[in-house]
User: Which sequence fits this backbone?
């Protein structure tokens, strides 16, 4: 045959031996083969990417980092422009992590979603959801202002064991395409791995927190056994609880004596000054609700919680909150409150239960402190009884006998000046006996159920109370017949002056030493308080000092303030004890 009968080169199968496939030119076959090779290679690369994503997610143990890694891996695997992970709490989103939206865009959009629309659809029906157009779904009701446009959507739930932990949301397939079944399969596979990683991170966090609580408990017990001041122990408890639980605010409140109210004695963290010293009723306060319940109570939004109805606005910027009562076998002795900033995750049961036991340490600190004070008070009273007995049985009798001896000696003294000196000595002994008897009366004023009647005992109790606020015990000096020569109304003013003066030192002076003197000399009562602090500010607020001056002027006396001998401040309040009454010369 000639060349004219030769056909172009082709690849063909003989139909006579089983049928013919469509004849393909060699270049078309090669192109098709290349496409299939690329597809296989693409799937292989995607499998490798999925495996790498699973491994990278599983390597993390810190829960916030695990969640962030899950979202970033999901966006890369399905080639989405935007991604988010919403943590589900009950029927709402308690936490919402986003990828692809910058900080400025996030602030322009406003508050993070709580779980409505398409996001809520996945919460209500935790099954994979794939959409070509978000706006076409019946549950969709649009986006807030300043929100970037989104059309395609793919969402899958993340399960931890049998619990739906949250949902993965992916939008805007790059290149303008739609999410396909393969994307859904990849995302579902990642969600399974994410559930395992989240469970591991939770277990790790629980074990780590348990160790931290145990260490903190051991430190608190050591402090209690060593006799550390109870306020220092309580302050340490609040600091440790706030740190371990990751709270922004820590508060501790105690019952007000002879009242049903509570007073916040310790507050640390965000806006602590708005809480410290606040007096609240039990009914209408979150802390009071915890004491009434006798167990931890939580809220995701403290500013909207119906149990908070009393007190000034003080929870601005705060959201998730937990309050636990300080319980002993004698009942609730106070409560601890921890709060986190808005948009932060709520407190879980795993976090609340250890906090309840830790708050019990605070109650134990108060109980031990009370028993320690009772034991110390009993020791002091027993010592006072012994001193009083010794003064009465020994000192007074000797002084009285000495006075009688001197009086009997007068008849043998002929010199007038010597006789006068002996009489003065007898009078001095008589005055000394009066002072000792007054001291004995003060030492034996043991009734703790009512305020001590004598100025000596009241002043001593006042100074002892001030030592708790100051952090050290002031030095106290008392002279003269404070209990017998000072009228009751003047004693009331003197106690009030002493209270205000010591309170001013505790609040403003930053002193490390305070000296208090009460003296009755020549018909005058003097109350002097001297500290080694920073002194009076030239433009400071002095309404309290003005009140003290008014008290002195009303009694015919005066008050002076100035620098102390070694710096600091010295306050001297002086009033006469013998005042002329109106209508008398």
Assistant:
């Amino acid at each position: 045959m000639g060349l004219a009968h030769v056909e172009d080169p082709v690849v063909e199968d003989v139909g006579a031996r089983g049928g013919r496939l469509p004849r393909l030119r060699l270049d078309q076959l090669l192109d098709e083969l290349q496409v299939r090779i690329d597809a296989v290679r693409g799937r292989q690369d995607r499998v490798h990417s999925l495996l790498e994503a699973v491994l990278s997610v599983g390597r993390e143990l810190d829960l916030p980092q695990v969640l962030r890694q899950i979202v970033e891996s999901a966006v890369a695997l399905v080639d989405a422009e935007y991604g988010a992970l919403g943590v589900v709490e009950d029927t709402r989103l308690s936490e919402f992590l986003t990828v692809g939206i910058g900080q400025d865009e996030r602030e322009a959009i406003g508050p993070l979603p709580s779980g409505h629309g398409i996001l809520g659809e996945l919460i209500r029906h935790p099954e994979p959801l794939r959409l070509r157009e978000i706006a076409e779904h019946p549950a969709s009701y649009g986006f807030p202002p300043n929100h970037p446009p989104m059309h395609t959507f793919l969402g899958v739930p993340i399960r931890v064991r049998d619990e739906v932990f949250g949902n993965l949301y992916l939008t805007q397939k790059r290149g303008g395409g739609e999410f396909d079944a393969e994307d859904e399969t990849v995302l579902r596979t990642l969600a399974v791995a994410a559930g395992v990683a989240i469970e591991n991170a939770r277990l790790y966090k629980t074990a780590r927190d348990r160790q931290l609580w145990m260490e903190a408990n051991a430190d608190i017990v050591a402090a209690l056994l060593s006799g550390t001041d109870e306020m220092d122990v309580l302050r340490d408890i609040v600091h440790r609880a706030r740190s371990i639980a990751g709270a922004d605010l820590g508060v501790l409140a105690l019952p007000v004596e002879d009242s049903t109210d509570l007073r916040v004695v310790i507050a640390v963290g965000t806006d602590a000054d708005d809480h410290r010293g606040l007096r609240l009723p039990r009914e209408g306060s979150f802390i009071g609700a915890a004491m009434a319940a006798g167990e931890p109570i939580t809220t995701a939004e403290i500013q909207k919680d119906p149990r908070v109805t009393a007190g000034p606005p003080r929870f601005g910027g705060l959201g998730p909150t937990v309050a636990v009562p300080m319980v002993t076998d004698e009942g609730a002795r106070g409560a601890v409150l921890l709060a986190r900033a808005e948009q932060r995750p709520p407190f879980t049961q795993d976090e609340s239960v250890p906090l309840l036991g830790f708050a019990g340490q605070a109650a134990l600190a108060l109980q031990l402190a009370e028993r320690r004070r009772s034991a110390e008070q009993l020791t002091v009273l027993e010592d006072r009884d012994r001193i009083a007995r010794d003064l009465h049985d020994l000192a007074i009798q000797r002084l009285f006998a000495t006075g009688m001896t001197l009086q009997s000696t007068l008849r043998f003294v002929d010199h007038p000046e010597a006789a006068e000196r002996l009489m003065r000595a007898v009078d001095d002994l008589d005055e000394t006996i009066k002072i000792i008897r007054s001291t004995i009366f003060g030492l034996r004023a043991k009734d703790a159920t009512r305020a001590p009647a004598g100025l000596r005992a009241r002043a001593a109790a006042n100074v002892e109370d001030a030592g708790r606020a100051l952090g050290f015990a002031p030095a106290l000096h008392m002279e003269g017949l404070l209990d017998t020569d000072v009228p009751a109304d003047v004693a009331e003013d003197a106690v009030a002056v002493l209270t205000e003066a010591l309170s001013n030192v505790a609040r403003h002076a930053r002193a490390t030493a305070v000296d208090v003197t009460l003296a009755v000399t020549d018909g005058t009562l003097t109350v002097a308080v001297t500290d080694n602090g920073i002194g009076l500010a030239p433009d400071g607020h002095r309404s309290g000092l003005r009140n003290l001056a008014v008290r002195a002027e009303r009694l015919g006396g005066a008050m002076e303030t100035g620098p102390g001998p070694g710096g600091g401040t010295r306050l001297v309040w002086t009033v006469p004890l013998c005042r002329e009454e109106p209508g008398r010369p």
About this structure: The longest helix spans residues 349-409.
